[in-house]
Design brief:
Structural class: alpha/beta
Strand content: 5-15%
CATH topology of the largest domain: TIM Barrel
Largest sheet: 8 strands, parallel, barrel
Radius of gyration: 25 Å
Number of strands: 12
CATH architecture of the largest domain: Alpha-Beta Barrel
Order of helices and strands: EHEHEHEHHEHEHEHEHHEHEHHHEE
Length: 402
């Protein structure tokens, strides 16, 4: 196991357009996928899995469109262990494939209905076929975290010998604990370049991704916002900031993260949780009087890294926990001058609203200030933007005002 601070650049494979779209209720249009793919490329994502060519004609049209965008990243299609899937991917003009083959006894014998030796032989044939057709090839051992490790080594070792560019340890059902991730990836990294694919069913997706990197993996599969089946895939933006802030390791263009997260939330209809790390509304929002006062004195007092690093801005919220410093700073932003006594009264009224479970908006604050100071003003609100998303289980709308 290596120290993460000794790791060089880590690459990302984004599967938002494939594994992310498998989240219940999500269906992305060709325009959606093209827009997301461009944004992923702008964020310097190394590999973009555009979908599964075997899904149907509509999906192949979409994959072809993404493949034709002339992106800097490698565009791939997810393929099952069937030659026709590779042919369909080739028809889409992708750069490579992510070839998934069964690895655990459950998947080899019950799902596919074959033997372990036949599974190895079939994988070798498929890899050789794909390589002969000029494709970049990654072989994923499905359900690898529950596979017999000796067999997983045999299977993926044979794939490397057949010409695969890399192999992937897949915690398909989010079953693994960090010690299992360490054991598996450490052994697989001796075979060749290895990737890691983690899910969050145990809340360990980021931890297992970081442990995998320490064990030798140099490419992480994941999605933006952590969307995906069940509890979701690992959130790439969380891995990226952990690597950057904690260890000085580069992965993606972090300033692009927030806009990318918003785009995907809007197009998928899956809203961001307010307390979501990195991209949630509250990630850089301070309400507590103690925290607000400290933040006004030193930006880093209650933040691990500056919001600008991930394309965000700091926000001071007003509510029941607000203090004089926060309210005064909010008033200063609107060029409202008050006396000490007036400030005390405004703080008291802000807390009263907060005690009723309400959030105090800028409009609320200015109205309170007008009432306390007796200075009625002509308040005008400018609509900067309106976005509405429907057609999913949870319709959403975003409004930007000034």
């Amino acid at each position: 196991m290596r120290a993460l601070s000794d790791v060089g650049e880590v690459q990302f494979l984004d599967t938002t357009l494939r594994d992310g779209e498998q989240a219940p209720g999500v269906s992305l249009t060709p325009d959606d996928k093209a827009d997301i793919a461009r944004s992923l490329d702008a964020a310097r994502i190394d590999v973009i899995e555009a979908g599964s060519a075997c899904t149907g004609p509509g999906e192949r049209e979409t994959i072809s469109r993404v493949a034709g965008l002339d992106l800097d990243g490698t565009v791939t299609s997810f393929c099952r262990g069937i030659r026709n899937d590779i042919d369909l991917a080739l028809d889409c003009g992708v750069d490579g494939i992510n070839l998934v083959v069964p690895a655990s006894d459950k998947h080899v014998e019950q799902k596919v209905g074959t033997s372990k030796s036949e599974n190895v032989d079939n994988t070798v044939e498929l890899v050789e076929y794909a390589v002969d057709h000029g494709l970049w090839v990654e072989v994923i051992g499905e359900d690898g975290s529950r596979a017999d490790l000796d067999y997983l080594e045999e299977l993926l070792g044979a794939a490397v010998e057949a010409g695969a560019d890399r192999i992937c340890w897949a915690d398909t059902v989010g079953h693994a604990t960090p010690d299992r991730a360490l054991e598996c990836v450490s052994r697989l990294s001796d075979l060749g370049p290895v990737s890691t694919h983690t899910h969050d069913d145990l809340g360990l997706a980021v931890t297992n991704a970081l442990v995998s990197i320490a064990a030798g993996a140099d490419l992480v599969h994941g999605t933006i916002n952590g969307i995906g089946e069940r509890a979701g895939n690992v959130a790439l933006e969380e891995v990226a900031i952990a690597l950057d802030h904690g260890y000085g390791v580069e992965s993606m263009a972090l300033p692009e993260v927030y806009d990318l997260a918003q785009l995907i939330a809007n197009r998928t209809g899956i809203p961001l949780a307010p307390n979501k790390a990195v991209v949630g509304e509250n990630a850089f929002t301070h309400e507590s009087g103690i925290h607000t006062d400290g933040t006004l004195k030193d930006d880093s007092m209650y933040e691990p890294y500056p919001p600008e690093k991930v394309g965000r801005e700091r926000r001071l919220a007003l509510g029941k926990h607000a203090g004089r410093a926060g309210v005064e700073a909010a008033l200063d932003e609107h060029d409202v001058e008050v006396t000490d006594d007036q400030l005390s009264e405004i703080v008291s009224r802000v807390k009263e609203i907060g005690d009723r479970g309400k959030r105090v908006t800028d409009a609320d604050l200015l109205t309170i200030a007008d009432e306390v100071t007796g200075d009625a003003r002509d308040r005008r609100v400018e609509l900067l933007g309106l976005t509405a998303v429907s057609g999913s289980d949870t319709p959403t709308a975003s409004v930007r005002l000034a």
